[in-house]
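so my prof wants the structure for this chain in the tokens format not the other one, which i didnt know existed until like an hour ago. anyway here's the sequence
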Amino acid sequence: MIEYPIPGGGAPPDLFKGFRDELANIEKAEKQNQEKALKMASMIEQADQSAMFGGDYAEAQQMAQWMTEHLDDFANSTEGLIEFQQMAQQLNNFIDASEAYKKQNVGTAAAGAAQGTWTGSVQRIAGVNPYEANGFRDTKSREDYEMAYMSLNQERKLQFDEQGKPILSQKGRVENPFMPQLEELEFEGGFEWFESNAKGHRFPDGEKDAKAWLERKAQDPRLRNKIARAWAKSQGNTGSIEELMETKEFMSAALQNFYDNALASFKSHSGDPKPEEIDEDKTLTGRFNKLTTGEFRLEDMPEASVGRMESQDQQGIGPNMPLAPLSTGFETFYELRKPISTQNLGEGKKIIGFNVDGYGKMYLSVQQPIAPSGEEGLLDGESGTEIVVVEVKAGSPLEATMRRHVDFDLWQALKSQSEARMQEIEEPKRGEKPGATVGKVINEQAPKAEKGGLFSRFFGLG
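here's what i got, hopefully its the right format
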């Protein structure tokens, strides 16, 4: 292999420094946990220096007391002395066996967490799993071990035979009371492993970074062992895990399966974010649709005169003077979803439609009772009312009323829409009909004309 010099000289960069630092932190935390567990086990060992467990001690004490109380009964004959010596020997043997039993099952802190003893269980309870590297865990709980210890220390009553002689028992000495109950660890698989272990990690270069991180993690012997065991089990391979891990083909397939599943988890979190839900009431189109139900084109209205609004601060459009699109920039009125009644109009009158011209002036469609003078408006014979078109004068109370219902942004959008149409009418584009782009201001497309609204009912066009 040709070695190329590093530009500028100096030592080559340590590409795996971050990985080694991470491993060092993990090993440091594990070492601290092990030291804590060892210290706890040492304290237990020192506190448990009595020679026997409580149950055996109670039997031996009661036996010795009985023999002391009945010493005179045995001293009266040679046979009695021989029997006493035999009982004493039995007691000594019982004590020796009991001390050995306790020493064996209490164990020592130095022997570690893997030993099947009381001090070993203390370290396991503290969080050390000495069987993990081999793919196992202890299924016994703290309560299981504590109950076993308390059972051995529970006081037992001395038993007697038919002649009234004491009998030493060993029924309290359970075989291997602190032996762990091992269960093979089920490896959760690459997907779930990544879900649990990649939290908080950032991968600026996406999948490439995630794959490199996974490859570094898979160098950990414990994780590598789990990957191998899970793959062997899935393939029905019952060979020795140690030998399989030395087989290149086997480990390549096992690791690739792990990487594929882990990256599937990565991809499930790195996709495009869900589109943010939009509150329609906060959009211009949403507010417009909430205010109106549609629009009505003036050319569809029957030919009739336009009435005059009787108001000192309002100027109506005179009889037989239709609104010219060239001067207003609109040819429809927007129908209000809910008609507006206001004292500024007068009794029996209500606003049923509106629009804004290219200069920002608003025009209203007002429904009112037919004028007594006989002057005709746009008639609705069934209801005895007429429709009049009113220009809202700037600064008038009626303008203030309308601005409470039609917000500034919507007012400006309608003004821009009418202004654009006025320009198109004056200078139509080649090959395009005047008014072709009307309606592009409000969310690219204004509400389409609707027939069958209030206007249709007024004029009998439904």
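also thought this was worth mentioning. Residues 183 and 380 are 88 Å apart (CA to CA).
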